[in-house]
Amino acid sequence: MITTSAWVCLLSPLVACLAIALAGNRISRRGSGYLATGAVALSFAAAVVAFVGLLGEQPDERSHLSTAWTWLGGGSYHSGLSVLVDPLSVFMMLVVSGVGSLIVAYSLGYMDGDDEERRFFAYMALFVFSMLLLVQGGNLLLLLAGWGMVGLSSYLLIGFNQRRPQAIAAAKKAFVMNAFGDATMVLALFLLVQHTGTLDFAATFERAQGLASNHWVVNLVALGLLGGAVAKSAQLPLQTWLPDAMEGPTPVSALIHAATMVTAGVYLIVRAHPLFELAPTVEDLAAGLGAATILLAGLIALVQTDVKRVIAYSTMSQIGYMFLGAGLGSYANGMFHLLTHAFFKALLFLAAGLVIHALAGEQDMRRMGGLRRLMPRTWLAFLVGALALVGVPPFSGFFSKDSILAAALDHGTYGYVLWAAGLGGALLTGLYTFRMLFLVFGGEPSPFVREHHHAHEGKEGPLSMTATVAVLAVLATVGGWIQLAGVWTPVSDWLFPVAEPLVEATGRQEAISSVLAVGLGLLGAAIAWWIYAARRGRVPRLRAVRTLLERKFYFDEAYDLVFYWPAAAISRAWGSLVEGPLVGGAGAGLGQATRGAGRLTARAQTGLLRSYALAIAASLAVLAVVFISVR
Amino acid sequence: MLLASFGNFLVWVVWIAAAFACLGSGVAVVSFTNPFYSALALIGNLGSLAVLYLLLAAEFVAAAQVLVYAGAVMVMFLFVIAYLGGQADAPWAGGPSWQTIGAVGAAAALLVEVVVAIGLKAGGRLSDEADVRRSFGGPAQIGRLFLTDHLLAFEITSVVLLAAAVGGVVLGAHARRGEWGSAAPERRRTT
Amino acid sequence: MPGPTVTWYLAVSVVLFATGVLGVLLRRSPLIVLLSLEIMLNGANLALIAFSRYQGRGDGQIFALSVMAVAASEVVVGLGLIVALARRKVALDVDKLTTLRG
Do B106 and A624 touch (CB under 8 A)? Predict the structure, then answer.
């Protein structure tokens, strides 16, 4: 029954996607929305069934592999179409389908009236299916398949508004950067197949232990997988696609670029942790990249003017925390933060979506202000999300984030550095989050708001939108209450059979980290209040720093220079030097040569009888000679 | 012996006369500007050829030559020339000089080559002709050969003649029906 | 055989043939070209008859008769063409009849 429900969970969104796609105009736009929502909700129900089923078992039997058939086989290598149900995958299934169903329900209201609603819901269903495939796949090959498909869904959904060139460009950027990660991952899988002969999780991890001495291979494998994770999760150095991905509709940003897809990298590291543990340098690298991203993203978020981009950078930063946790080996904490992050980040995005919806599409924070009075419930939801994000108890973020920071203390000197980075991140988080809050909601309603704000039939938004936001607000509040570090750890216990943590923080370290993190977070919030709400302070002028942050540390420009420019130059050169003359020239030249030859030989077609006769006579003369001499 | 040598001498005389007539009329055909004269020269050519055939014991062919060729074909030629009247005038006109040189060269080459070929291949053997009976070249032999050894050639030749007849009719048909393209547009008769 | 040997006849035939070739290549009136063509054919006929006599077999004469028949057919068609051309007032000059040029 457990595996059956896992299959139902996996396939339900796929069926919905296909149904919507094949039904075309026969299904109403609303209908497609309901179908998609229903399918994802069914997924969630099935995930719950699987979860309950697993709960009823002993911890060490909680692993079920169900194979439909052998999907790929070559020589001694076989890959089955298999679904793995174990604590980690069920955890992710619940997150993906649960938050997913809420967001798809939200889209019913958000996308209402859009001409392409059916396409949207088909893509959303496709995405949920892909993500579930990723987390439920029983071998690395299916994980890769899901990996690629979520990349595809992301591309389709970011570029959903096909008439907007920025959206198309952003979709391409996301896809290309993800493709880079996919490539490194595939190379890692090649190495794995070569050295272990299989890609099934259990078998690969077991045989990989035998490779422990082969440093090159294990490091390359881990590096390849990390590359994929970094690309998918928008960490340094492949982070530039995520802010641009905000071109997609808000539910897309919430689902894909906050709650689920971008967390796939973390899932990968946790799932493949045996491989990573064989390459501790790479693990440290992962943690380091995470820490760097925390700070980088936090700093950039300080100068953003688009509300969605602030939340995007915040996502980047928080995933940095998850990478930090996973890189350190504190897997359960990383996953816990993934869970709480899904709640409050989706909440923030959807609440921002309510604001954007009410302001008829405006996303620039500088034009907003004073929405607190006009949209009090949204403000409340936003506040809840913000507090959870900053990590203020009793909201969810507190319970998850601090555990990660504390775990860093168990990792030696490097761990201290990471810990410091994490604390710096906490300060920045408080700062930019409350800056956003005050800019959007604080003070008096701005002229723009007064002009453009329109309520939805007297309420702050359609029911589908407000209800889901409310649910998420509740989850963001209580979602963290399932684990209190050091005291009550059901999450860690749940994930223990799958991923044993490498680091454990003592109670004292936990306490210190928590206090410092919360304190710094509140300090950041206070500074934001000082500057933006009370207007008693001014943002320091620091022109150079400001430019650096506004240009996102010049990453886009650097990549443009390093990758785009040479590639474009080479292809231009190639085109003009080789392709033009050779290929085009060959084709055109062939035609021209033939035509020229034809023209030349056509000169013999004089139409003059006498020339023809002369030709005959002359050839006859020649032939006679030949005849004589040969005979 | 004397009679034989006289006969031989006679044959030689006849041969020389006929040969010269043949060649001369041949040159005349090619060189006259008036096509009528050319046609007449050709008739002369055909006649002298008939004499040569007779000397070669090909009596039937000679007769056929005179009757068919000179009698029918050339008459047809003369009819056409008469019909064309002035249009048929064929002066020697200039052409690209390379044509002339090439033509002369080709013809000369052919001449030389054939001579050389025959000379080389045949050597002196061409002096030994076969002995033939009196019936050689007579209608009986021709007829028998046509209907036995060369029946296919006979039949195909008749088909060719039929095709030529049809072609002649088609080409010569009046452009009344206007189906053959660039004829004068017909005038509708109002009835 | 009394009189000249076959060689002489062959010589006449070759010269006749060459004359015909010259006529075909050097004259511009289609009518004269046709006549020259006849000369060529007759030259060939003479060679055939000569060889037939040399071999003592009648096959050459049969061939010559067939050639005559074919020559007649060809003349019919050729003259038909010329008449058709003349009727359409097209100049009877082979150098000008170049519609079939490529």
Answer: no
Point out which residues pair with A431 in neighbouring strands: none
Measured between CA atoms, the residue of chain A closest to residue B96 is A611
- For B43, half-sphere exposure in the C-beta direction (CA atoms, 13 angstrom radius) is 15
**Cβ separation A617–B114 shorter than 8 A:** no
Question: A454-489, pLDDT tens digit by residue?
Answer: 776 667 778 888 888 999 999 888 888 887 776 777
Contact C22/B at CB under 8 A: yes
Q: Å from C2 to nearest chain A CA? A: 31
Residue with the two structure tokens 């096959």: C59
Q: What is the DSSP letter of A86?
A: S
CB B15 within 8 A of CB C2: no
Kindly list the averaged pLDDT for each block of 10 residues, start to end, along chain C of length 102.
84 93 88 93 95 90 94 93 87 80 64
Rounded to whole angstroms, how far apart are CA atoms A130 and A57?
28
Q: How far is A592 from chain C (nearest CA, A)?
A: 18
**Cα–Cα dist B64/B71, whole Å:** 9
Distance between CA atoms of B106 and A614, rounded to whole angstroms?
A: 8
Residue in the block written with tokens 């995007």: A312
B107-128 burial: b if 16+ Cβ within 10 Å, else e: bebbbebbbebbeeeeeeebee
The reply to whether residue B109 touches residue A614, judged by beta carbons under 8 angstroms, is no
User: Cα separation of A312 and A315, whole Å?
Assistant: 5
In sequence order, which residues have a C-beta less than 8 Å from that of residue C63 and are 6 or more positions away? B153, C48, C52
As a whole number of angstroms, the distance between CA A297 and CA A200 comes to 36
Cβ separation of B126 and C22 shorter than 8 Å?
no
Chain B adjacent subunits, 3+ CB pairs under 8 A: A, C
What share of residues in chain A are helix, strand, coil (percent, to 5)? 75, 5, 20
pLDDT in tens, A505-562: 777 788 888 888 889 989 988 888 888 877 777 777 778 888 888 888 888 888 888 8
B52 chain-C contacts, CB cut-off 8 A? 9, 12, 46, 49
Using a CB-CB distance cutoff of 8 angstroms, which residues of chain C are in contact with residue A610? 24-26, 28, 94-95
